[in-house]
Amino acid sequence: MTACAIETTAEDGDHDGTAVHPPAGFAITANGAYGARLAGSGDALYAERWTLDGPEPYAVPLPLDQPEEPDTRLLPLADGRVLVCRRVDGRRHTFSLLYPTGPGTGELRLGSVEAPGPGRVELLPPSPDGICAYAMQAGPDSTTLWLVAGGAFGPERVAEIPGHCAGGVWLDRTGRILALDRRLGDGPVKAVAVDLERGGEVSPLLQITEASNDRLLLADPDSGLLLIRSDAPSPGHERLGWGVLGSLLPVRFPECLRLDDAAVTPFAIQPGQVLMPESCGVALRIDAAAGAWVGLWRPSGRRMHQVAAPPGWVAGAGTWSPEGVLRLPCSTEELPCALAGLSVPEEPEPVAAPCAGPEEGPGREAGPGDAGEAARPRACRPVPLQQAPLTDRKPAG
């Protein structure tokens, strides 16, 4: 493991090693340029924007006259503004854009969305275009997608999708194709692709077996690499696996990603590895009774490298550079705005191509000549998204 120098912006203050954990997580733009979180403590919470792509990281506080609530959600945009989603009176969600203006904070109010019942409106991950922001309102029988920033008239309803949806992963670089985990009635959860430019047209995306719960956790449009959680290989017990968008080869469930005493969750994929999904670095958050730490892995490798989390890591947040450096936002009393860098160590080339290794579980995506494909070493070649067979997938027999 190679640990890069920690980039920091230091402020005066005593240091006792205690991490400063944001109440509501840390969101990062798709291009890794900006991050946003709730800072402060107690009843004095405020939005804070981090600039991550300069010579060193720095934070800009964006306080208003009224403090933010702990359940306020933030989303940074590529132009440096921060979208704020607040719940008012238990059912109405308001949206605003915050930005620094001189010594103060400017606020552009965008409007609101009503969410009757127990559910709430959740922000989707930052759009790859860096301009638009979307929110999802999931009900028991249908799910509504809203464009809440980047439109012409405030929040706009863009799609109504049958079924209860969760998750949210972008499959392209334009912010058009969105993957959601959908449940119809009492059926299993299946990841589907939603085309936002065609009124929310839905196409099947994951169908490992008819009865399995197949969720999409992460995707990289450059390489086509998909990180999947499914109970197909062991019904009733979900496993972490990987596949390639558009490939007819099976989904693989590596044993090295399975820990008996800890939960493993991927949170970032290395971009820029065009047509080379096996070469992508994948960052994983490992949670156990002892705390949280970092896992580093490549599909071409046979092991997951486990690394102690840097001091003050905002657990579950991070972004890869195309060169393969994982940058983790950290905040302590002494260093309230810092980035720690990690990289995956090189491993010897495997004897056989990873696409046909013994780690392929019984849960798989079927295709013509499936058994023969799995028996021969073969390089995975993702299909470009516009040609990917998101429809007419056949369930495994």
Please describe what this structure looks like.
By secondary structure, this protein is mostly beta strands. Helices cover 2% and strands 43% of the residues. It is built from one helix and 27 strands. The chain has one helix at residues 370-375, and strands at residues 2-9, 26-28, 34-41, 44-51, 58-62, 73-76, 82-88, 92-101, 104-114, 121-123, 133-138, 142-149, 156-162, 164-170, 177-183, 189-195, 201-204, 214-219, 225-230, 239-244, 263-269, 282-288, 291-297, 305-307, 319-320, 325-330, 337-343. The strands form seven sheets. It has a four-stranded antiparallel β-sheet with strand order 1-27-26-25, with no helix packed on it. The model is unreliable at 1-24 and 352-397 (pLDDT under 50).
